[in-house]
Amino acid sequence: MTYDLAIRGGTIVTATDMYRADIGISGERIAIIAEEVSGAAREIDATGLLVMPGGIDSHVHVSQPQGLGITLADDFASATASAAAGGNTCIMPFALQQRGHSLRQSVEDYKRLAESECYIDTSFHLIVSDPTPAVLGQELPALVKDGYTSFKVFMTYDDLVLNDRQLLEVFDVARAEKALVMVHCEGYDTIKFMTERLERAGKTEPYYHAVSRPEVIEREATHRAISHAELIDVPMMVVHVSGREAMEQVRWAQQRGLKVYAETCPQYITLTAEDLQGLNMEGAKYVCSPPPRDTESQKAIWEGLTQGVFQTFSSDHCPFRYDATDGKLNPKARTSFRWVPNGIPGIETRLPILFSEGVSKGRITAQKFVELSATNHAKMYGLYPKKGSIGVGFDADIALWDPNRKETIRQEILHHGSDYTPWEGFEVTGWPVATIARGKLVMQDGDIIGDKGFGQILSRSASQYAS
Ligand code: URP
Ligand code: ZN
Ligand code: ZN
Q1: Nearest CA owner, ligand 1 atom 2
Q2: 319 has pLDDT over 90
């Protein structure tokens, strides 16, 4: 047999093209794309389906330490299974440095958790929470050379926040090492001020999480981070942009010629702060940061997506169980929104939501969908041209989509570790029906048929966007 697997009769979509062709796969790679491919040991009939690069989700949190008594709902097995079910072939979680710990040791510990557990490929960003002279001078440069070519820093959260001086120091290392720095742009002091004021007024329900971090706080921090990056002359990525105010800061920077990139997520095109108003503690299911805004903000995010302000669309999957003492309903959560863990599950629903709200509703083309869901992630984070497109020589990371299939998102059909989905009852048109990771069929019709441990831990090259 000439090929191990052929995908026949489908329509291939890349970030630039859409055309009818067959694909022949040898081992883990795409060997041929032609009008007709025959002579394969196994064939998949993709008639009527779109053949797209497997999604790359470049912003997910898995098995990440959360502080006393709180646990993330996904380990690497459940997160990668859930990702594969949602049409993804690679995820990029964060290896978190806890304060007082060595960054290198944190990475090694985290890697051990992932090894032999993943159904699809995984590659880590770093989170720098304690930029000591040893971290800045030795650990971080050495880790970038080892293929950890991107790291996230936070402008908020008690355990993670860096002050302006520390941000500048980290940006300076990113510039020297040609690494890509990702920034969570919300202001620490302003949120603290708002939180304490709301609590004094007895406004403690989950909804007030959104009130405590309005768009102006995100806008100020986004502007400050952009200014720091301009001062240091380093490219940067603004993650999880929630609405017009921050989007316009990014667009302003881009129009001035700065290398400022941006990411947004499904919650900012589909949810609003009103979702946090649920009866009793139901609103806790939607608590994430930045919080979802309003329908005008959703329009602004679409403007940014269609005009090229955003390069990537990620899930920011940060799953907690709702009805659990180590999750959203932990014992302190009822006393104030400040104790409701921040984050929502979304690794499996990211792509159906973008496809349905974007492609099926005519807001973006299928090519733009591929760019936002896979190609730009690979380019942004140094996985291209191994991953992120369909072409000869690329890893055979492919998702088959039925563009007409209607589904209702429900917890019972998902594979993540959370006990709920924020999109319960959300109707979509377009659904991934099979996922092929490095030539191996890992998901078919919603069933995970791949093997735990098949997914590799990948190191990466420098970002094409970081120099
Ligand atoms: O609420 C969120 N987004 N939790 C995950 C951590 C982060 O800031 O990305
Ligand atoms: Zn963040
Ligand atoms: Zn995140």
Answers
A1: 343
A2: yes
Residue 408, classified by CB atoms within 10 Å of its CB into exposed (0-12), middle (13-18) or buried (19+), is exposed
Which ligand 1 atom is nearest residue 318's CA? 5
Q: What is the DSSP letter of 205?
A: S
pTM of the model: 0.98
Confidence band, pLDDT 50/70/90 cuts, at residue 1: confident
CA 288–ligand 2 middle distance (angstroms): 9
- CA–CA distance, 273 with 292 (Å, rounded to integer): 5
Bridge partner list, 335: none
Question: pLDDT tens across 9-18, in order?
Answer: 999 999 999 9
Q: Which has the closest alpha carbon to 314: 429, 461, 150, 462?
A: 150
Give residue ranges with CB within 6 A of ligand 1.
61, 184, 240, 288-289, 316, 318, 342-343
Say whether pLDDT at 279 is over 90: no
Q: Which domains does the chain have, with CATH numbers?
A: 54-367 (3.20.20.140)
Ligand 1 centroid to 222 CA: how many Å? Answer: 16
Distance 240 CA to ligand 1 centre (A): 8
